[in-house]
Amino acid sequence: MTEAFDWRPVYRFWFPPDVRSTDIADHWRLLQWWMGGGANGELARFAPVLEAAKAGRLGQWLAEPEGRLSLIIVLDQFTRGLLADTREAFASDAEALGISREGLENGHYKALAGPWERFFFLLPLAHAEGPDHSDRMERVVAMSEEALARAPAFLRPVFAFSLSQARAHRDVIARFGRFPHRNAVLGRVSTPEELAYLEKGDFVYNRRPPVS
After folding, report:
1. For 62-93, what is each residue's pLDDT tens digit?
2. How would DSSP label each residue in 22-72?
3. 21 within domain boundaries
4. Which of 126, 73, 69 is nearest to 102 (CA)?
5. How many domains does the chain have?
6. Are 144 and 166 in contact, with CB atoms under 8 Å apart?
7. pLDDT category of residue 211 using cuts at 50, 70 and 90
8. Is 211 part of any domain?
């Protein structure tokens, strides 16, 4: 049980050896595993870690960049995998946002060398609804543009897709001020414009990578 409350098992699970591959096909597969729910079937063993994180018992993880990133992944990603289709899936977004913001200020974000590490470090800025969401989405788009420029040549198609997703999420927030696809599970009443959007069903998070 001691290991379950160490950040390293989370980090090793979320960033498997393929993340260091120079084969772009491996990275497309990883992106689909992360974003397409492929990891969800393996998350049950991390349920106690999520409970500890939600209870505020993993503050020691914040002492180093990889530990902070691991806590972000637990609060931002494991919530969505373990608590899908419930309001609890989004209940830790504000906390993850605060942890990410603090890491952007204290140098932890810049200390992460891997492009995928930085990608997941930023996700709470995009995921957490709130009054400054549009400003945060503009920052995410700008940093995604920087990530594309820094990415190794073989990875640029993957990060170009990531940038397109960031821009699309920015447009949704600019239009509605929130994610309408969350309305039902959060008990919110959709506006007529949101109902038209929901009826269309072209949700950004459902778009899959254009793997050739």
Report:
1. 999 999 999 999 999 999 999 999 999 999 99
2. S-HHHHHHHHHHHHTTTTGGG-GGGHHHHHHHHTT--GGGGGSHHHHHHHH
3. yes
4. 69
5. 1
6. yes
7. low
8. no
What is the C-alpha to C-alpha distance for residues 51 and 30, in angstroms, rounded to an integer? 26
The tens digit of pLDDT for each residue in 87-99 reads 999 999 999 999 9
64: how many CB neighbours lie within 10 A of its CB? 13
* 121 domain residue, yes or no: yes
Interacting residues of 163 by C-beta distance below 8 A, sequence separation 6+: 141, 144, 145, 147, 148
Closest of 127, 156, 172, 162 to residue 141, by C-alpha: 162
Q: Residue 132 is encoded by which pair of tokens? A: 């400054």
User: Residue 57: which CATH number?
Assistant: 1.25.40.10
**Residue 212 within a domain:** no
Q: Identify the domain containing residue 122 by its residue range.
A: 3-206
For residues 96 and 126, the answer to whether their CB atoms sit within 8 Å is no
pTM above 0.90, yes or no: yes
Q: At 171, is the pLDDT very low, low, confident or very high (cuts 50, 70, 90)?
A: very high
